[in-house]
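Annotated sample (chain length 158).
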Amino acid sequence: MRVANGDSPARTEAKRKAVELVERLPDFIRVGPFDFAILRMDSIRAQEEHKFGFFSATGGEIAIQAEFAHPTKAADTLVHEISHAIFWAYGIEDGDKEERIVNVTASAWCQVYRDNPWLLGWLSEALTGPTALVVKGPLSGLGDVQPGSVTYRPEGMR
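Output written by the structure step:
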C-alpha cells in the first residue's frame, strides 16, 4: 500500500529513522589527534552540490545530509566522510601501496572506534533496520540460506 506522497509505509518509516539517527549524532568526532565538528547539511544544499556529505580539513568538519531516504545511506555517508578524515589525519597519499593503506586504516579505525564509543552503536542501529536479513542458524556460505530460513525480506527482494 502506498501513502499519498508515493512512499510505502516502510519507506516512510526508513526516512523517519534516518532523520532521527542523524539528529542524534554528537557535535564532534575524534580522528587521530583532531576533533572534527559533525554538521548537518540541509537537503537544498545537498541537492545543489550533488553531495550526501563532505569532509573539510581546513574547516575541521564533517558534514552529512540531514535527511536520507534510508538509515543505511546515512551510515554509509558518515563512514565515507570519516574515511576522508582518516586519509588526511594519517597522511595517506594517492601513491601509497595497498599494504600501507590497509595497515594505517586498520589502526585508524581502531582509534576512531576507541575514541568515539557512540559510533559502533550508532552504526549498528542504522544498519539493522528494514534491510536487515535475520537468518536462523549458523551460516558457512550463501548456499546455507534456504527457503524459510530468512525471517524478513526487504521490499522488492525475492
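Annotation: The beta strands are 28-31, 34-41, 53-56, 61-65.
Annotation: The first strand starts at residue 28 and ends at 31.
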